[in-house]
Design a protein that fits this description.
single chain, alpha+beta, Helix Hairpins, D-amino Acid Aminotransferase, Chain A, domain 1, OB fold (Dihydrolipoamide Acetyltransferase, E2P), five-stranded antiparallel β-sheet, globular, binds 2-(butylsulfanyl)adenosine
Length: 671
C-alpha cells in the first residue's frame, strides 16, 4: 500500500486537474460520481491523518475552513488601478488622441497601436498573491492601495487554482470575481423563498459574498472568476498584454476565450459594439468593454493620471437591470392552452429601451420569486429576448401591506372556458383547444413562423386578422384561402394578397421534420420533429407507432413519448393532419440513414453563416446523410463556424483536433 501522505498528495493533484477541466476548460474527463469518490477518499484520509491537511486541499474549499473574526487590511504590492470611462465613439477617439500626444511629447512619433478588447465583467476586482506557486492571499481592491484579506472565501472558488505550476517566486494575479446570471437568479429565489432580502444585482451579491466572515456561506454561493492581468511579479516579463493572458491561461486560470487584439480605432469600436450586441447571450453580466494598449513598453511610457492608467479605458454600456413597479399580473393563453403570467410594469428605460411588459414564465415562478402586485421589482433585459422580472427589489420583502401572490384565473382570458390544472403540469390550462381563439392564434402563428413552415408576409397581426374575420379557424384553412378573400382584408392589395397565397402554396416543399414541428405537438420542438421524421419516414408510420416505438427516437424519453403519442391520437389533431395532407409534405426525402455523401459524418454549427440559416445548413447536412449535434466531442468530424462563433466550441475543437471549416467548405463537402 502507498503511504497516506503520498496518496493524499496524489489525490489532491488529481482532483485539482479534474476541477480545472470541469470549471475552466468545460471539458470534464470523468463523471461526477468518479469525482465524488476521489473526493470522499481524500476526505477520509485527512480525517484519519489530520496532519496531512494542507490549505490548498480541495476539501478545504467546502466548509473545512474556519470563520475569521474580521477582515484584515492588506497592502497590495502593486496598486490596483481603476479605469476612466468612454461613453461614445468620440470619447474613445479622444482617448487615443491623448495617448498619441503624450507619446509624441515622450519622443515617440506615430506609434502603431494594437488594442486588446476584453469584456468588462460586472463583479469585483480581486488580487491573488501566489508565493512559490501556492495561493497565499486573496485581497479585495479596497482603495486601490490597501484592500481586505478575503483568502478564506477565495479558497471556496472552484475555478481559482490553489497551486500553479511553473510559477515565479511571487506573482499577483488580478481578475474579477462574479456570480453568473443563472447562479444569481437561483440565489435570489432561494432568499425570497426563505423570506430573506434579495440582492439588487449579481455584483452586489458577489461583493456581499466575498466579504463574509464565514467561508461556509461563500461555499454555498457559487462564485466564478475571470483573470485579466498581473500585478507585481518577480522574474517574468511580458512584451505584450496578450502574452500575460496566455501565461495565465497556461497556468490554469480562466481567461475569457473571446478576447481579441485589434488595430485602429474603427476596429476597437466594432469590437465594443459586437460585445454590446452579444451581451445578452452571455451567462454573466458585463457592463462594458475594457480596451487596453497591448504593448507593455508603451503602457509603461504612458503611465497613469491619478488612479487611472492612460493606456486603458472602459467603454461603458447602458445598464440592463433596473428597478420598477409591478403594476399588474396578466395572463396569456399559449399554444397548448397553458396560461402564462406576464407583468405590466411602470415603464422604465432598461439598456436603452423603454420596458412596459415582462415575462414571468409560469405560476410557480411567481411563488418562487415571491412577487405581488405593487411590488418594486428588478427587471432584466438581455439582448433581444423579452424582458424578465428577476425578483422583488431588496427593500420589498419586509413591507407589511403586500397583497397575495397572484393566482391564475378561473376562466380562460381568451374564450371564457373554465380552466383546469392537469396533474404534473406546471401550467393551469384552457382545455378548449379547438374552439379557443387565443390558442388557435398561437398555433397558427407558430405554424407559419420562420423555423416552421416559414410563410413570408404572414406575421402575428395578419394571422389575428384572418382569424377574427373568420377566414380561417386553424392552420389547415390557410391552404384554401383565395387571393380575392385575402384582398378584402385591411392592409392587403392585389399584389400582396396574391403573394401571400403563393407563399402559402410554396410550403409544400418544407421538409417533413419541420412540418411535424409546425403542427404544434406538445414536446415536439425543431430537433425532435427532425428526429421523428428520420426515424419514421412517413406520417402514417408515426401515427401507427406506439409510445415504446416513439421512445426509440434519439432524444425522446419514455415520458415524452407518452405525451407525443397521446397528442397524435387526439381526434382534432388527426383531423388537422388529414386536412393538411393534400398540401404539405408528410414523408422524408433524401437517403435513408447510412447513405449520401456525408454518411456517418457528424457536424457542429456555431456562429452566423453568411448565406445559410442554421436550419437550412442542418437540413442540407441531413439530406446528405450527415448528423448535426450541438456540442463538440471526440465524435465530431467538423465544426462549421460562421461570424461570432461560440468561443467554447472553437476552443474545444482546437483541443480535440477537430477541423473547423467555413460555409464555403461545407458547401463543397455537400457537393
Ligand atoms: S483592468 C489597469 N480588465 O473594472 C486596469 N478591469 O473600472 C485596471 N474590470 O476595478 C483594471 N473587467 O473590477 C480590467 N477585463 C478587465 C475588467 C476589469 C472588469 C473591473 C475591475 C476594475 C474596474 C475598473
Amino acid at each position: 500500500m502507498t503511504d497516506p501522505a503520498s496518496r493524499a498528495a496524489h489525490l489532491r493533484e488529481e482532483l485539482a486537474e479534474h476541477a480545472h477541466r470541469y470549471y475552466v476548460l468545460d471539458d470534464p474527463a470523468i463523471g461526477d460520481d468518479e469525482y465524488d469518490a476521489l473526493f470522499a477518499e481524500l476526505q477520509a484520509l485527512e480525517r484519519e491523518h489530520p496532519e496531512l491537511v494542507t490549505p490548498d486541499s480541495p476539501t478545504q474549499r467546502v466548509g473545512g475552513l474556519a470563520p475569521v473574526s474580521r477582515l484584515e487590511k492588506v497592502e497590495h504590492l502593486q496598486p490596483m488601478l481603476s479605469l476612466a470611462n468612454a461613453r461614445s465613439e468620440g470619447e474613445l477617439r479622444a482617448w487615443v488622441e491623448r495617448m498619441r500626444n503624450h507619446l509624441s511629447r515622450e519622443g515617440i512619433a506615430d506609434p502603431a497601436f494594437a488594442f486588446v478588447c476584453e469584456p468588462k465583467i460586472d463583479g469585483l476586482a480581486i488580487s491573488l498573491r501566489y508565493e512559490d506557486g501556492e495561493l497565499a492571499r486573496g485581497v479585495t481592491r479596497g482603495d486601490g492601495a490597501i484592500g481586505e484579506d478575503v483568502t478564506h472565501n477565495v479558497r471556496t472558488i472552484a475555478s481559482i487554482p490553489a497551486r500553479i505550476p511553473d510559477a515565479p517566486p511571487l506573482v499577483e494575479v488580478r481578475g474579477e470575481v462574479y456570480l453568473s446570471l443563472p447562479d444569481f437568479a437561483a440565489l435570489n429565489e432561494r432568499r425570497a423563498e426563505a423570506g430573506e432580502s434579495t440582492f439588487m444585482n449579481p455584483r452586489n451579491a458577489a461583493a456581499g459574498t466575498i466579504r463574509q466572515l464565514d467561508p461556509r456561506l461563500a461555499a454555498r454561493r457559487p462564485l466564478s472568476f475571470w483573470a485579466y492581468g498581473i500585478g507585481a511579479v518577480d522574474g517574468v516579463a511580458f512584451a505584450r498584454h496578450v502574452d500575460a493572458l496566455a501565461w495565465l491561461r497556461r497556468r490554469g486560470f480562466p481567461v475569457n476565450g473571446e478576447i481579441r487584439v485589434v488595430e485602429g480605432e474603427e476596429a476597437v469600436v466594432a469590437q465594443c459594439l459586437d460585445w454590446e450586441r452579444r451581451r445578452g447571450e452571455l451567462d454573466f453580466e458585463i457592463d462594458g468593454v475594457v480596451v487596453k494598449v497591448d504593448d507593455t513598453e508603451l503602457q509603461r511610457r504612458l503611465g497613469s493620471v491619478g488612479r487611472d492608467p492612460r493606456w486603458a479605458i472602459a467603454w461603458k454600456f447602458a445598464p440592463t437591470t433596473k428597478v420598477t413597479t409591478l403594476r399588474r399580473v396578466m395572463w396569456n393563453v399559449g399554444k397548448y392552452g397553458d396560461l402564462h403570467p406576464f407583468a405590466e410594469l411602470e415603464p422604465v428605460p432598461v439598456g436603452g429601451v423603454v420596458v412596459k411588459l415582462a415575462t414571468l414564465h409560469n405560476e410557480e415562478d411567481l411563488e418562487r420569486k415571491d412577487l405581488r402586485e405593487g411590488d418594486d421589482v428588478i427587471v432584466l433585459r438581455a439582448g433581444d429576448v423579452i424582458p424578465q422580472v428577476l425578483s422583488p427589489a431588496p427593500h420589498v420583502v419586509e413591507r407589511p401591506d403586500r397583497g397575495p401572490i397572484p393566482r391564475p384565473p378561473a376562466r380562460c382570458p381568451s374564450c371564457g372556458t373554465p380552466t383546469v390544472k392537469p396533474e404534473g403540469s406546471v401550467f393551469t390550462k384552457c382545455p378548449n383547444r379547438k374552439g379557443c381563439p387565443g390558442q388557435q392564434w398561437q398555433l397558427t402563428k407558430h405554424f407559419v413562423s420562420r423555423g416552421a413552415m416559414d410563410v413570408e408576409g404572414l406575421g402575428e397581426l395578419q394571422v389575428g386578422r384572418l382569424l377574427r374575420e373568420g377566414l380561417i379557424r386553424d392552420p389547415a384553412d390557410l391552404y384554401r384561402l383565395s387571393a380575392e378573400e385575402v384582398q378584402r382584408l385591411d392592409g392587403y392589395g392585389e399584389v400582396s394578397a396574391r403573394k401571400l397565397v403563393e407563399a402559402i402554396a410554396r410550403t409544400r416543399d418544407v421538409p417533413f421534420g419541420r412540418v411535424l414541428f409546425a403542427l404544434g405537438i406538445e414536446e415536439v420542438g425543431f430537433v425532435t420533429g427532425r428526429n421523428l421524421a428520420q426515424r419514421f419516414r412517413t406520417i402514417d408510420a408515426l401515427l401507427e407507432a406506439g409510445p415504446e416505438e416513439i421512445a426509440e427516437t434519439p432524444g425522446v424519453g419514455a415520458k415524452m413519448a407518452e405525451v407525443i403519442h397521446e397528442q397524435l391520437a387526439d381526434d382534432d389533431m388527426r383531423d388537422l393532419i388529414d386536412r393538411l395532407r393534400p398540401y404539405v409534405r408528410f414523408e422524408v426525402e433524401g437517403p435513408p440513414p447510412g447513405e449520401g455523401p456525408l454518411a456517418g459524418k457528424t457536424f457542429v454549427l456555431t456562429g452566423t453563416l453568411p448565406d445559410l440559416t442554421r436550419e437550412e445548413a442542418t437540413e442540407r447536412i441531413l439530406m446528405a446523410g450527415g448528423r448535426v449535434t450541438s456540442s463538440v466531442s471526440r465524435k465530431t468530424d467538423y465544426v462549421v463556424a460562421g461570424e461570432a462563433p461560440g468561443g467554447s466550441k472553437l476552443g474545444k475543437a482546437e483541443r480535440l483536433d477537430v477541423p473547423v471549416v467555413d460555409e464555403a467548405a461545407l458547401l463543397e463537402l455537400l457537393g
